[in-house]
Write a structure and sequence with these properties.
By secondary structure, this protein is an all-alpha fold. It is 78% helix and 0% strand.
Length: 421
């Protein structure tokens, strides 16, 4: 897989947002310089801060809903709102950015992340809370588009896949440490203190990027025609549908996992913190394992983890009376989702080898649409049919995702060829 990505990167030197020849990081066959990897770490810290902030309300939903006087389903808008805004901002920011240095854009987005956390922490009512979450969404779409599109620019070409995987470990670290820590802080102090803590994390990410990120000049601006060119490909459209279904499956259920654990399974808040910590830890291990094996068969790996996701979601409602059974299924769910972002990210890179930045923008936009629609639909289902129903909804969406994955056939050697058509 790394060789494939390296070939893709080399092929695209004359295209979007890739460094000019004299700006490329020079090296021979030795590992990339330490500073190059430190710049990747800086982006990974940003990913950690963004994902922790994005999903912090998942562990705080009951407390925020109670204090701000809204129902749990309505409180789910704290996840839906940034998803909607990010879906718009991902392509819009890249179209409007022109040839602005990508380093400056990443720094500006980190400032916006810090502002989002401060507004949310001080929110006197739910409307102000949604304003803070909207600021997050405005920054989120652009950050992920640039993080995924520029990861290969920070290191040598042959290390592109490792750089992407390292940045995506920010996602798993957020679920391992960030979200559970936010829940723990809320039990010790308040949910407002949790947002202040994520504000501090955002400040650390901003400082790391200011110190470590190199200049990332843009050679050419992304154009509407680039987006249209990708969307004109049947397999790219099918791939985006698959992404939407899989992420929608996860977030229609994960947004309401804390209310499920409290109301249906009888867990207290300290126990929920431990469960979410376990979810994140196994997800981190899963991401590490899949990064070493995904090159052998990307499609089979993706099919397997989505199948585990489906089984976990469908089994949880029937196991609610057994806390041990619930924990096992939550951990299996964590294993599945720990591997899914990397698998889907590489899948979309293979779908758009000639238009990497446009591909990243569409990928991020579809993911955020899936998060927004999944969490909002889950909220409607929770308020009208009860919490277990949103788990069944997630399981059904995962099943639909498996159908789409299967529709590509299982010829590993020709997968990249098929996807780029």
């Amino acid at each position: 897989m790394e060789k494939n990505l390296a070939a893709i990167s080399a092929q695209n030197d004359s295209r979007l947002d890739l460094p000019l020849p004299d700006q490329r990081i020079h090296a021979n066959s030795t590992p990339s310089p330490l500073r190059s990897w430190l710049s990747v770490v800086a982006v990974a810290i940003g990913a950690f801060a963004f994902v922790t902030t994005e999903f912090l309300p998942v562990g705080l939903l009951p407390q925020i809903a109670r204090d701000l006087g809204v129902s749990p389903g309505t409180a789910g808008l704290m996840v839906t709102t940034p998803g909607v805004i990010a879906a718009i901002s991902a392509p819009a920011l890249m179209l409007g950015a022109g040839r602005i240095n990508r380093r400056l854009i990443l720094l500006a987005l980190s400032v916006l992340l810090l502002a989002s956390n401060l507004v949310s922490a001080m929110a006197p009512g739910f409307g102000t809370m949604l304003l803070g979450r909207a600021l997050l969404g405005a920054a989120l779409g652009g950050f992920w588009t640039l993080a995924l599109a520029t990861s290969a620019r920070l290191v040598q070409e042959q290390h592109a896949a490792k750089a992407t995987a390292m940045i995506l470990t920010g996602v798993t670290f957020a679920t391992v440490i960030g979200v559970p820590l936010g829940t723990f802080i809320s039990t010790m102090a308040s949910w407002r203190a949790s947002f202040i803590a994520t504000g501090v994390l955002a400040a650390v990410a901003l400082a790391a990027q200011a110190l470590l990120l190199p200049s990332l000049p843009s050679k050419a601006a992304i154009r509407l025609s680039d987006l249209r060119a990708l969307l004109s490909r049947a397999n790219t459209r099918k791939s985006l549908l698959m992404v939407a279904l899989v992420f929608g499956a996860h977030f229609s259920a994960y947004t309401y996992v804390t209310p499920f654990l409290v109301q249906s399974a009888g867990f207290n808040l300290p126990a929920i913190t431990s469960v979410l910590l376990g979810f994140g830890f196994v997800g981190f291990v899963s991401n590490f394992v899949i990064s070493t094996t995904v090159s052998r068969n990307l499609q089979l790996s993706l099919f397997a983890v989505v199948a585990i996701l489906m089984v976990s979601l469908l089994a949880l409602p029937s196991l609610h009376a057994s806390q041990a059974g619930v924990v096992v299924m939550i951990l299996a769910w964590g294993v599945a989702f720990g591997a899914i972002p990397l698998c889907l990210s590489i899948w979309l890179q293979m779908s758009s080898p000639d238009l990497p930045e446009a591909g990243s923008a569409l990928f991020v936009s579809i993911v955020q649409v899936a998060i927004a629609v999944g969490s909002s639909t889950g909220g409607v289902v929770v308020d009208s049919l009860g919490i277990p129903s949103t788990l069944w909804l997630g399981g059904a969406l995962a099943l639909a995702g498996l159908v789409v994955i299967s529709s590509f056939g299982f010829n590993h050697k020709k997968l990249g060829e098929i996807l780029s058509q």
